[in-house]
Specification:
The structure holds two protein chains of two kinds. Chain A is an alpha+beta fold. In chain A, 42% of the residues lie in helices and 19% in strands. Chain A has a single domain (2-132), classed as 3-Layer(aba) Sandwich (Glutaredoxin). Chain A has helices spanning 2-13, 26-35, 49-53, 85-90, 93-103, 120-132; strands spanning 17-22, 41-44, 57-58, 65-66, 69-73, 79-84. In chain B, 9% of the residues lie in helices and 24% in strands. Chain B has a two-stranded antiparallel sheet. The two termini of chain B are 20 Å apart. Classes of the chains: A alpha+beta, B mainly beta. Chains A and B meet through strand 1, helix 2, strand 2, helix 3 and strand 3 of A and helix 1 and strand 3 of B. Strand 1 (17-22) of chain A pairs parallel with strand 3 (36-40) of chain B, so a sheet runs across the interface.
Chain lengths: 135, 45
């Protein structure tokens, strides 16, 4: 979370909205946000509907919590980047930002390319960096 | 884990969830502005 907070300006500059989702109630998220100076929104999935809908509910812990997952969604509503569990925890924000940028720029006028699908070699490069882990 | 995890190319289920300020955020509405990255995490305890 701290890594994403540090990288947040890059996401803003690219016109990309970043949300973190947990099953914590809003007041707990508010404390976490204030304690750790998190600049993006922390959303509360109290009833686990979103976590279930994304197929990532781990029902064995604390009444059900999300498996750590990063999903990047394009303007067409489709997921174009998904990292689950260990891969999500190892996803470096710069790699994530690169993946989103290579898919297409954020909001209109934010610069960069728009609506270009990632090429296979881009995805291979990203996967290689995942496997290498933090440098 | 329950269900099938979302995969690249899937339509992302719409979400309408409250943020820490109590205001509802809508994925479908926010996507009009640009891409959205959702980072699901285990939470604070």
């Amino acid at each position: 979370m701290a890594d994403l907070a540090d990288a947040h300006p890059g996401f803003v500059e690219a016109g990309i909205t970043l949300w973190a989702v947990s099953v914590d109630p809003p007041h707990v998220s508010a404390l976490l946000k204030a304690e750790h100076f998190i600049p993006f929104d922390l959303l509360s999935d109290l009833d686990r509907h979103a976590t279930r809908a994304y197929g990532i509910l781990n029902p064995r812990e604390r009444g059900g919590i999300p498996i750590p997952t990063i999903v990047a969604v394009g303007r067409d509503g489709r997921a174009f980047f998904v990292a689950l569990d260990r891969m999500a925890r190892q996803t470096r924000p710069d790699v994530l930002l690169e993946a989103v940028r290579s898919h297409g720029a954020g909001r209109a006028g934010a610069g960069g390319r728009r609506w270009i699908r990632p090429r296979l070699r881009d995805l291979r490069g990203i996967l290689r960096r995942f496997r290498k882990g933090p440098e | 884990m329950t269900g099938t995890p979302i995969a690249v190319g899937d339509t992302a289920p719409d979400v309408r969830l409250p943020a820490s300020d109590g205001v509802i955020r809508s994925l479908s509405l926010t996507l009009r502005e640009g891409p959205v990255v959702l980072a699901f995490y285990r939470g604070h305890w």
